[in-house]
Design brief:
This protein is an alpha/beta fold. Helix content is about 40%, strand content about 15%.
């Protein structure tokens, strides 16, 4: 603002000097750098570096990762040509289509599901367009909306940490362009029933509102609404290989939708936007017999241990589904997060002022050995 005022004052002086016959530069000789005000005013926090020596239970990664022998067997197939050449997506897209039971025309491969969400927002909403979403949830829904000059309308949780379908539907006004649902929702693990989803789906169809369902945590919770994306226009589902498939370091996701809608999303993709190693690992995971079931079994063992341990020690918690749990601590949540990091070398997340739970912890769930370490540490610092 100060620069703009100063510039206007200088321009006024130029006109006065020119009127007096003085030799001064022309107005068109003066230019100012341009900056998108949506980016200028965007609030971002980048705190995800220097975390290698910690047990990372703050970003819903799989702390154990894939079995080492499996990783080594896949890496053995990497050739110099794979490293040197631009990747091609057709083969993996067909493998993925076969795995989820659809056609390649229904799929767009992306560099993580975050990229997919970004492209869907860009394609199916306009500047100043109205986007409705539940909060708290995946923060990039709001970031992308604000980044591209959209109006993100927040639907808060109820005090008992449930989601009100009435409140969501109330915000689906005639000028709304998109509704975003995360199922299960992060951080509370809330899920939508068939009846609830059908109600929102019908409202969106009637008012011509694009419906985006993020199923990042689908494999921790078997219900999916992907059939709606396959049978209807302007219904899209995004998924990721970062969570259960333990590939957050590779970055791979995809969008499922009507072929016409998928073509629009693909127009935003840069050439070769997904890397060959990610597609190789993903293909081996979904085509190796028993691999996905083994990952789910290890997760369930860790989840069951954590739930029983929290119950035994008198902790209230919430998380119907997903690879995370919302925990009400007995002392200050912020202090627990700091002590877990500095003393126990464990990273967890704090959520302030959330309903009847107040300030709470969100913890990613992993194999039993990591949940044992977390519980041992929690009992030491939360007292």
């Amino acid at each position: 603002m100060r620069k703009n005022i100063a510039t206007r004052m200088n321009m006024k002086g130029l006109f006065e000097h020119r009127n007096r016959g003085m030799n001064v530069p022309k107005l068109e000789d003066y230019k100012m750098y341009w900056l998108d005000h949506n980016v200028e005013n965007l609030v971002r926090i980048f705190d995800q570096n220097e975390r290698k020596d910690f047990l990372r239970l703050d970003l819903n990664e799989n702390p154990g990762g894939l079995p080492r022998e499996f990783v080594e067997s896949v890496l053995a197939e990497v050739t110099p040509q794979m490293v040197a050449q631009y990747p091609e997506t057709l083969h993996f897209t067909q493998v993925l289509a076969d795995y989820i039971g659809t056609d390649i025309t229904n799929i767009c491969i992306t560099n993580g599901s975050a990229e997919a969400i970004r492209y869907v927002i860009q394609a199916f909403t306009a500047p100043n367009g109205r986007i409705v979403g539940v909060v708290p949830s995946y923060f990039m829904f709001q970031v992308y909306s604000e980044m591209y000059g959209r109006n993100f309308v927040k639907v808060p949780y109820n005090d008992d940490l449930t989601i009100s379908i009435d409140n969501i539907e109330r915000e689906l006004t005639d000028d709304t362009q998109m509704l975003i649902l995360l199922n299960p929702n992060n951080p509370m693990g809330n899920v939508y029933s068939d009846e609830e989803f059908e109600r929102l789906f019908k409202t969106c169809q009637e008012k011509e509102i694009t419906l985006l369902i993020d199923e990042a945590y689908h494999y921790f919770y078997p219900k999916t609404f992907i059939k709606y994306a396959l049978k209807n226009k302007r219904v899209l589902v995004t998924r990721t290989f970062s969570k259960l498939f333990s590939m957050a370091g590779c970055r791979l996701g995809y969008v499922v939708g009507n072929p016409e809608d998928i073509k629009y999303v693909q127009k935003f993709c840069t050439p070769h936007n997904t890397n060959a190693f990610a597609m190789l690992f993903a293909e081996k995971i979904i085509t190796t017999p028993g691999m996905v079931d083994a990952l789910i079994a290890k997760f369930n063992e860790g989840r069951n241990y954590l739930l029983s341990s929290l119950d035994a020690n008198g902790y209230r918690h919430k998380g119907e589904a997903g690879n995370f749990l919302f925990i009400e601590p007995k002392t200050n949540a912020g202090h627990i997060v700091e002590r877990m990091k500095n003393e126990m070398r464990i990273l967890i997340k704090e959520y302030p002022n959330v309903g009847e739970f107040g300030n709470c912890l969100r913890v990613s769930i992993g194999e039993k050995q990591y949940m044992e370490r977390f519980m041992d540490s929690l009992l030491k610092v939360d007292r």
